[in-house]
Design brief:
Length: about 200
């Protein structure tokens, strides 16, 4: 079936585009969600008007999305989950969990559908997750899953590292204040007299 998009649809097209789609996709998703209308002659006359209005709206939204992408760039999220000895989780970290954590940490609301997570995270470790804010605006964040109690352990280890780094410069400065090595003349004077000829 042919439809006229009245809103931008990821992986399909922009508002004002006429697209040929599977009948089930059109009837069950695009039309009920008001993302498209049937491409009738009357609707096609409005295509250019829809396209121009959508371009203006898209320009504003793209600017906003880029600002959000800059704020979220290099964001790190840490989750604690129960896990087995092999590192498999008893449960998972979902795109909804990630969206809620972003909002809790940054006060920026991100739709869970914008979190490009092909499947929930089901093991311990770190991974990069893409946030697809618009069709042409995305950013990545770092997601780390630790075993229960792991956040406290991680904080403790970070404090130990910071303490070690703070002590490191003082150790090197004491080495420079140590007594200098005796030069060759001093070494010659300190030779045991029994061995002299």
């Amino acid at each position: 079936m042919k439809v006229l998009l009245i809103q931008d649809v990821d992986n399909l097209g922009y508002a004002g585009d006429v697209k040929k789609v599977a009948a089930g996709y059109g009837r069950n998703y695009l039309l009920p969600q008001n993302l498209a209308v049937l491409a009738t002659p009357g609707a096609l006359k409005q295509a250019e008007t829809i396209r121009r209005a959508a371009e203006k709206k898209r320009a504003r939204e793209t600017e906003d999305a880029r600002a959000i992408a800059n704020q979220l760039a290099n964001l790190s999220l840490v989750f604690e989950r129960r896990a087995g000895e092999t590192g498999k989780l008893y449960g998972s970290v979902t795109s909804n969990d990630i969206a809620e954590a972003i909002e809790a940490k940054t006060e920026i609301k991100v739709d869970k559908r914008k979190v490009a997570l092909p499947e929930p995270i089901r093991s311990l470790g770190q991974q990069e997750v893409t946030l697809k804010l618009m069709m042409d605006v995305s950013t990545t964040i770092n997601v780390e899953v630790l075993p229960e109690g792991g956040i406290l352990e991680k904080q403790r280890l970070e404090k130990v590292d910071e303490a070690n780094k703070a002590e490191a410069p003082t150790e090197t400065s004491t080495d420079s204040e140590a007594e200098p090595e005796p030069d060759d003349a001093e070494k010659a004077e300190s030779v045991d007299p029994e061995f002299e000829e």
